[in-house]
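In the lab's daily routine, each protein ends up as an entry in a very long ledger. A line of letters takes care of the sequence, but it says nothing directly about the fold. The fold becomes a row of whole numbers, each drawn from a learned catalogue of backbone shapes. The protein below has been through that process, and both of its lines are reproduced in full:
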Amino acid sequence: MHGAGQVNVDDRRPPMGAVEESLLRQGLRYALGLRLIVVALSSTASLLLTEAPRQGVTVAVVAGLNGWNLWYARELLRGTRTAGWIVADIAVMCAVCLTQLWTVRSDPRGGGTWVLIAMVITVVTYAWQMPWPALAAGTSAIIAAHYAGAMIADPGGWLVSEAVVAWTAAEVALSWALYRFVRRSARTADRTIERGQEMRRTAAVATARRADEREYLAALHDTASVTLLMIGNGVLTEREAWLAEQARRDLREIGRSDAGHHGELDLIGLLREVAAQTPLRVSWRTPESLALPAVDAVSLSRGVREALTNVVRHAGVDHAEISVRRDAAGVTVDIADEGAGFDPGLVAPDRHGVTRSLRERMARRGGEARIVSSPGGGTTVTLRCPLSEPEVPGDEGLIAAGFQRGLRWAVVLVSLAILVLLDLPHLLTGREAYTQLGAQFAAWAGLLGTTLVAAVATWRDRPVKRWPLLAVVLVCSVVATATVRPEYRLGPAHWSEGDAGWQVVLILLDSRVAVLAAVLGAQYLLTFAQAAADGQAALSVAGVVNATWLVLAFQLAVGMIAAVLRGLAVSSAQVVRAAEQLRTSEEVARQLHRDRERRYADLATTAVPLLEGLADGKLDPAEQAVREECAAEAARMRRLLTEYSTVPDPLVSELRACIERAERRGTPVSFAEYGTRPELPPRALRRLTEPAVEALATARGKVRLTIAGTGDAVTVSVIARCAPPPEVPDGDGVRRSTVLDGDRWWIQSVWREAP
């Protein structure tokens, strides 16, 4: 791992995920901390309980080793570790092992020495610090140095034992297996989370793009479309300063992206800016300022802009009132006027007017819009936006389950390896140490069965039945101790003395450390009490302390790992969630920017030149040609709204809206439809209706419009005295034909379903 876990681990592997990286970082801290504590306690206890051959040398070695461990841990945690630090640490531990001639005393009843404990805990924690080739080499060197130091200190004596080599190598292998199982679980969690993130990110981008498309179209409806429509309908016929400023604002709106709205904005400031862009006098009932998330503030301000625009267009008054109030659940904005009013119940559901567009806009933010109005009674528009964001589901459970499963399998492997490879040979070769060999095998079988039951529960992802299994473990421990001859108790033949604790760890792995420590302590106390009652034991008090500490520290360490992993699941999920939100927001911003560029390119040759001409005064809204072009472009813009609507028949809905606008200008329209029509793709719908939309927007005199369906084809034809239709190549399955008959154009567009 580079920077947070190991030295040059798995360079050929793909980059690590957040969970695996967090695991290795926390694992390194745990390993170094455990080594510091165990070495410090065991070496200090040895100085207090036993007398070394050279006490002064022993004190110096103990102080030097603990000082080095502290320095080594600090450097590794600072991220400055290199292969040189690992080599230096191995050399220091080898040197300590070679000093046993002066630092330990030969005592057959002494059990393990503090040097043995320091050596074992050092190589056991190497699994979190280096790749396996370095682990194997470093372990071999340190074990060899320990064996050589023991031979020098006690030639042919109890210190020179091949069992020490076997046990140390086994513990290192088990520690490596535990590390690999947990790391594999972290990697699996990363892959699972990554797949879920990708799905959520794809859905979030798609949702954001759809929402931005609708918001953009709604903004066009409220800004450029309104400006052009008012010119096209002859409402505006003068080159006024406010019209030029409005056109400039419309141009900015066309090129602006909501992806840039981050952090918080002052809603009141936005509303005052919107109100200043209208000729209305506005009364305010609002706080001085109100900070909201930017997307909510922008959404509300655009809703208010649309409501004020409709006051200007339809209410027949020059005054409106805006009130804003906030409560624990959200923000409410009211826009009220005392104008002409209308009957909302008479508005057609396919009309994209204030009743529908406002409701859709607020619904996209999880809010709502209400319109209360009556003919002659004025209109009140209420916009409501919630402030609480939905909680994003976390991955804590997934990460914790992965860690728990991996760690449990590792402990199952450790338990089976100890029972089969270490304890069973003692049973088979040490029969003279037992009063009842059958009881010993029964206790061994009971512990093996407990391990297998826990393994099956892990395989099936089911909880382990703790207390019945704990009862079996404690009974087996008592039976195994009771049938060991007193002089062999607490020695190598007493295999169950510490090894039964591994089943306790396996059963209580998901419990609190305090519970695990209490049950482990009870298991050891039962064993020591039986040994003390008979007054004999294979080890002295110091030997019992050393031997017990050597095994108990490893078992408690596993319980601490489980607790660390449970906390790590929460912190890793937070890191993963933050990274996911960042990547999602970046991807959304990229996609929305591209969408806005594409939309702007679509308008660059049509709406943009018109707005630029109005902004700089080059186009005169009083000219007939300008009015016709503005009317046609406004109709094209509004046609885009239909493509994203949910009306059952968008073709008829779109054309009826255009017919209604034409009739409001005084243009009579004769409309007919017949036949069965297939569903049209959006691009085909746009091409098919474009000639009719432009003809209706620029028509002078009566218009005849017909829609015909023939099962696999749709024909839209229009006859009108209108502006000449532009030359447009066929495409998207649509073919167009135009005929000029005197001063009237006959324009026909046909779409046929591909065979």
About this structure: The CA atoms of residues 31 and 376 lie 80 Å apart.
